histidine--tRNA ligase
Amino acid sequence: MPQLGLLPRRAWATLLSQLLRPPRAVCIREAGCHGQVAEAVLTAQLKSDQEKPNFIVKIPKGTRDHSPQQIVVREKILDMVVSCFKRHGAKGLDTPAFELKEMLTEKCGENFGLIYDLKDQGGELLSLRYDLTVPFARYLAMNKLKKMKRYQVGKVWRRESPTIAQGRYREFCQCDFDIAGQFDPMIPDAECLKIICEILSGLQLGDFLIKVNDRRIIDGIFAVCGVPESKFRAICASMDKLDKMSWKDVRHEMVAKKGLAPEVADQIGDYVKCHGGISLVEQMFQDPRLSQNKQALEGLTDLKLLFEYLTLFGISEKISFDLSLARGLDYYTGVIYEAVLLQTAAKAGEESLNVGSVAAGGRYDELVAMFDPKGHKVPCVGLSIGVERIFYIMEQKMKASGEKVRTTETQVFVATPQKNFLQERLKLIAELWDSGIKAEMLYKNNPKLLTQLHYCENMGIPLVVIIGEQEQKEGVIKLRSVPSREEVAIKRENLVAEIQKRLSES
């Protein structure tokens, strides 16, 4: 008897048809069983297909596609941000999109539930990165680095409820700048605030304010108000919601959900309503309760020094000492800050833009030690630019103004007015590409000249080179300015030099 695997194709077909044939009374019991099983399987598959709902093509909640026009705007934002980071001496760094889960969860506090977990991959529990700060701290510890000034641009993921109208997504891009190392107090911190001012001023988003506080002052307030130390981080997480919720709602959360005594919450409320400049720092030094707390005094002393440096940088008027600022992440240890755009009266037909903070950061002196086997500390301070929110603002402004965005950088279009000039066009465009000139042509053998010129006008291409029978005989190429529609004949050997000259002058 031959082996099953060696049966000829026709025999397999016969066997399969017998198995799928409905059972008959004359069939033996075994054959009937085979047929019933096969029929049941087919019936189940058909039923499953019938019950399957219509497939909806969509993107996941809290994400978005970016059109070519939007990419141009985003690239301008990123170019300006990164150029500022480089101007301040930062080196580029890139880290994986996912990390070991234990690396990310240790210092996320109440944000633990916002982390995207991945399935077990080869024995490793992984999660998508929540921010770029924790991976940077892990990188420093792994490579035993004690000093580094770095920038990083990359996507991060947070499993929270998105608010698209405010530029809040589950997947979004962050631009981080950090200074790691042991330095004299507040010099790196002041530079971070200076960088935020430079970027927001350069992007021309409107008037802005940077709120500044210190986690040591917050802990000092909690201590003198009577918050149990075990509740410090939980109450801080509630306080961090003051930019989205009223004090009444935050107080309710502290008392009803986190078990804080109402009188303690009321004392915290007296502090969080305070904001001002260096004069408020001086006032807090005189506070009878806060001045008796060691942590709070350390924070106030550093803030006083920080304001001195900010005055020298010429940005102190952009800074507000705001006791309501908390920053919910657990890894902050000292100065914290958050930049917000100041609301201006909307013009007729425009809606008021309220997107929350557009940049934030602070000092985290103990995070690197978590990843170091020997617990060596590397003091760090940094900032993060909220690209998505900035992009949303610029996008809305462009819509309101009707500004058009050019989606390509093509400098020259290669055209012809006659048939059978594909080979000449290909040779000419290759010459332009090899010279570093950005060039295009239509992918047709015999395109109409009017079609080619309309394409250039629609795409904003500034120059057209035209080759035809007459130009070929005379050894020249016509160079046409799209905006002015003026044409000049250029010797073929001088064409590249002439184009480069015109582009450099434009």
The longest strand covers residues 148-157.
